[in-house]
Amino acid sequence: MPHPPIPASRVATSQPSAPRALVLVAEDEPEIAEILSAYLDRNGLRSIRAADGRQALDLHLSLKPDLVLLDVGMPRLDGWQVLSEIRHRGETPVIMLTAMDQDMDKLTGLRIGADDYIVKPFNPAEVVARVNAVLRRSRPAGRDHGREVIRVGRLHADMESHEIRLCSPDGDQPLTLTLTEFRLLTHLMYAPRRVFSRGELLVACLPEGETLERTVDSHVSKLRKKLEAAGLEAVPASVRGVGYRLGDPS
Predict the structure, then answer these.
(1) Would the pLDDT of 99 be above 80?
(2) Could you give the CA distance from residue 14 to residue 32 in angstroms, rounded to a whole number?
């Protein structure tokens, strides 16, 4: 019998801090999405990726990203439809990405509620600069951000203190993880049902000097052994021929 969907929740405690902003990259071209995610991560931002418009809306609803980088030419639902629904839901900043350099397209995006508009081909460093500029505009000056805690099943991750605990009725058990293991586990926790390829995890979670996808397998194996020793089996879960997903941390 299949496991029910694993909810991921992000809660704020009373201790003030400034967690890294989460950017949803809605782009159906894997190479472009991977490059953008890498640049965002190296500039102190977190990212999650959607390959079509429907997935973008699902992730927007479940993860509540701080900003959306939205490609116009998306499958299932195009960028205009996604933007319209995001605006119906609230005021999440949205930067449109498109290969169409037409004034009418820019006007359409701005009319629906886009915060900025970037034409392909673009310099990824410029995209990151525009993202930071929009984030600064969207956050009131002097605003305090609560400490961010991700909760998925028995796993609780404190993003400020870089602490992960395995919770049970008998008490909480802290886990001793390396920085790379922490990044891998929390990256999977942000979208617990999604399968991430080794290439995605390599770019998002591993140091710049590590370039081989099989290195991801080594880090995941060590992470899994630590979780098994703490009483959590088969996490992260392997998806043959694809990569990894969180699994069931209940």
Answers:
(1) no
(2) 38
pLDDT one-digit tens code per residue, 153-187 = 889 988 777 889 998 877 889 999 998 899 899 88
* pLDDT for 11 beyond 80: no
pLDDT for 58-73, tens place per residue? Answer: 999 888 899 999 999 8
This prediction has a pTM of 0.52
DSSP letters along 93-154, please? Answer: -EEEEES---HHHHHHHHHHT-SEEEESS--HHHHHHHHHHHHHHHS-TT--EEEEEEEETT
The number of C-alpha atoms within 13 Å of 201 and in the hemisphere containing its C-beta is 32
- Helices 30-42 and 198-205 pack at an angle, to 10 degrees, of 20
Quickly count: other Cβ atoms within 10 Å of residue 240's Cβ.
5
Calculated CA dihedral for residues 26, 27, 30, 33, nearest 10 degrees: -70
The per-residue pLDDT for range 136-147, each reduced to its tens digit, is 877 643 333 445
Residue 192 CA to residue 198 CA, distance in Å, equals 16
**Encoding tokens for residue 202?**
């390599």
Domains assigned to the chain: 16-138 (3.40.50.2300), 153-245 (1.10.10.10)
Q: How far apart are the first and last CA of the chain?
A: 15
Residues 6+ apart with CB under 8 A from 208: 42
* Contact present, 150 and 10 (Cβ < 8 Å): yes
